[in-house]
Specification:
Layout (H helix, E strand, L loop, with lengths): L5 H14 L7 H22 L14 H19 L3 H16 L14
Length: 114
């Protein structure tokens, strides 16, 4: 499978919405869906990596699929609000790098812990 850029992913989602999905849900609906999807991922992580256990009635979920659901809704929100996620991500990386260049290296809580 070839690599997909954020821009290509945004375009792919937009094509799907316009051909198959009829139209975008409004921004408030998509924000609620994003929150729901993050909750589903949190529930799964709590059961796989935390102390929670699966109920017998619960179906197994796949972490990658849950993460992709989150990405899908985020791409929808970016498209409908005119955000170029590639540019936003690059700006965000520069912001974090400038702000945290020394911070984490000097944090004793992060030293020698695995």
């Amino acid at each position: 499978m070839s690599e997909l850029t954020l821009q290509q992913a945004q375009e792919k989602v937009d094509r799907w919405i316009n051909v198959i999905g009829v139209r975008y849900f409004n921004e408030l609906t998509n924000m609620a869906l994003l929150t729901e999807e993050v909750g589903e991922l949190a529930r799964l992580i709590a059961r796989i990596y935390g102390e929670q256990s699966f109920k017998k009635s619960e179906q197994q979920y796949e972490l990658g699929d849950e993460m992709a659901d989150i990405l899908w809704v985020l791409l929808c929100l970016a498209n409908q609000t005119g955000i170029n996620l590639t540019e936003a991500f690059e700006r965000n990386m520069m912001k974090k790098t400038d702000r945290d260049r020394e911070r984490h290296i000097q944090n004793p809580k992060l030293q020698n812990r695995q």
